[in-house]
Amino acid sequence: xxxxxxxxxxxxxxxxxxxxxxxxxxxxxxxxxxxxxxxxxxxxxxxxxxxxxxxxxxxxxxxxxxxxxxxxxxxxxxxxxxxxxxxxxxxxxxxxxxxxxxxxxxxxxxxxxxxxxxxxxxxxxxxxxxxxxxxxxxxxxxxxxxxxxxxxxxxxxxxxxxxxxxxxxxxxxxxxxxxxxxxxxxxxxxxxx
Length: 193
Fold this sequence. Notes:
- This protein is mainly alpha-helical and 193 residues long.
- 60% of the residues lie in helices and 7% in strands.
- The radius of gyration is 31 Å and the shape is elongated.
């Protein structure tokens, strides 16, 4: 969330980012389409011939990226949220459902007139997070935790065994030295006293 707030401020106030198109201006090269022509402004997927005043913002176009962000949030909530546990009360379950829908609906509404660079960043990072989570879950599902890892031929296993043997040798030498120091006869200076 702090990164989103900082990016929001940067996209509004950084002059270097003004009028910078997304994807190297590919949409502008297609008959001057204003979609994502300025990352510090709304995405302007379809420009409206009139202005809609919603008291909190003025809408001059239909913006696609916030809508897609809502769809990505819905997918994330549907497939990535943990199932309800048996220890949850009905009120907690209801609150969890409400939070899911609040995120899916509230974020796109709040960011509908935000800079398109911010909404594009949030949607892309959420999409990458979904993909990454699915890959990690698939790899964990492949692992068999019921059997101990007894791979003797792997380079990592050999390196670990070698390092453990060296550490044990160093420890044994240190113990022998300390035993030799204890069993040594006291020096002449201490015997005279």
